[in-house]
Amino acid sequence: MVNAAWSGLDSMSGMDDTNYQQWKTLLEARTGMILPDERRSFLTTSLGIRMREIGFTDCQAYYDYVVSGRESVMEWAVLVDRLTVHETRFFRHMAAIDMLRELILPEWMSQDEPPKTIQCWSVGCATGEEPYSLAMLLDHFQETDYCKYYFGITASDISLAALATGRKGVYHSRKLRDVDAVLRKKYFNRVSDTHFEVNEDLRKRVCFAQLNVLEMEHAPVGKVHLIFCQNMLIYFDRKRRIEILNSLVQHLHPGGVLILGAGEILGWQLPSLEKIEFNDTLAFRRLTSM
Ligand SMILES: C[S@@+](CC[C@H](N)C(=O)[O-])C[C@H]1O[C@@H](n2cnc3c(N)ncnc32)[C@H](O)[C@@H]1O
Q1: The predicted structure's pLDDT at residue 8
Q2: CA of 235 to the centre of ligand 1 (A)
Q3: Which protein residue has the closest C-alpha to ligand 1 atom 3?
């Protein structure tokens, strides 16, 4: 008998090298995600588990089902959720939050005509911790700094399951570890021994919508003042990252700010943008006149 480990055949999904390449190509074409070969076992294990769940034993038959079967759209939605990384947490990148609180918001509010509305977009929002962190900051800032504006946040992601979690706004108490006690008291209600719910007023400020960033023409937003795009670009190759960023910039109002994760793109700049230097945050402001 040929040892599966040596034949390139995965024992769980029955996937050989050809199948593996086929799945990798499909994933990249549909989501833009580049799966490095070190993650091969993640792909084969995830597919193997899913195949077992719905009774497939043949990897090629499952591939055909996902690509052209009667339930292909539904099945793809399940797979996307399984194959994308939704790791996130509240106030994940404090330097970016500090930059907003200490630099951007004070600047906006000290203008001759401060904005009456602040529209934001969290791109690749996963299960909602990022847009809710932003909502807490924007809401709380008004009280502590005696200014008044309306704000709304659009939170988009490719994964329907992640968006559903965000919409529900219920999180395990462990997830609230990084939320300051004042904010926790103000914006969360306990719903069980272990879980907390984002309060309704804050939930109303965040609108969750599905968007594949490879299809920016379907973006659920017009022009916004602030775009958060963190820990998502890392899954794409450089060409795609640049295409995505160039599209995002089109959605910024003049003076609007794009905040990325530190080190997510090197050497990218547009004439319409100026870089903002603040701790280790990577951020750009769209120039008012171009
Ligand atoms: C690691 S999470 C980042 C969450 C959050 N921004 C943060 O920094 O904590 C990456 C998210 O990007 C999403 N994603 C991956 N490919 C995508 C695509 N093509 N379009 C939209 N979202 C995508 C995943 O579903 C996942 O929720």
Answers
A1: 52
A2: 9
A3: 231
Q: Kindly give the number of the ligand 1 atom that is closest to the alpha carbon of 213.
A: 20
Look at residue 214 in the predicted model and tell me its pLDDT: 96
Task: Clarify whether residues 258 and 164 are in a common domain.
Answer: yes
Which residues of the chain have a pLDDT value below 50?
Answer: 1-7, 290
Whether residues 103 and 218 fall in one domain: yes
Q: Are residues 43 and 167 in the same domain?
A: no
Question: For strand 170-172 and strand 273-278, is the pairing parallel, antiparallel, or unpaired?
Answer: unpaired
User: Residue 265 sits in a domain of what CATH number?
Assistant: 3.40.50.150
Please tell me if the CB atom of residue 13 comes closer than 6 angstroms to any atom of ligand 1. no
Handedness of CA 53, 56, 57, 58 (dihedral sign): negative
- Residue span of the structural domain in which 154 resides: 94-286
End residue of a domain, out of 25, 59, 83: 83
Q: Cα(164)–Cα(213) distance, rounded to whole angstroms?
A: 18
- DSSP one-letter code for 110: T
Q: How does DSSP classify residue 35?
A: -
Distance (Å) from CA 163 to ligand 1 centroid: 11
Residue 231 Cβ contacting ligand 1 at under 6 Å = yes
Q: Tens digits of per-residue pLDDT, 28-60?
A: 999 999 989 999 999 999 999 999 999 999 999
85 CB less than 6 Å from ligand 1?
A: yes
Distance CA 31, CA 34 (A): 9
- Token readout for 242 is 């640049």
Q: What is the best residue among 81, 158, 160 to mutate for testing ligand 1's pocket, by most ligand atoms within 8 Å of CB? A: 158
Domain count, the chain: 2
**How many angstroms separate the CA atoms of 64 and 66, rounded?**
5
Which atom in ligand 1 lies closest to the alpha carbon of residue 228? Answer: 6
Q: Is residue 89 assigned to a domain?
A: no
Which residue is closest in CA terms to ligand 1's atom 16? 31
Measured in angstroms, how far is the CA atom of residue 218 from the centroid of ligand 1?
Answer: 17
Do 132 and 73 lie in one domain? The reply is no
Q: Give the model's pLDDT for residue 263.
A: 85
pLDDT at residue 3, rounded to an integer: 36
> Do 63 and 196 share a structural domain?
no
114-147 pLDDT per residue, tens: 999 999 999 999 999 999 999 999 999 998 878 9
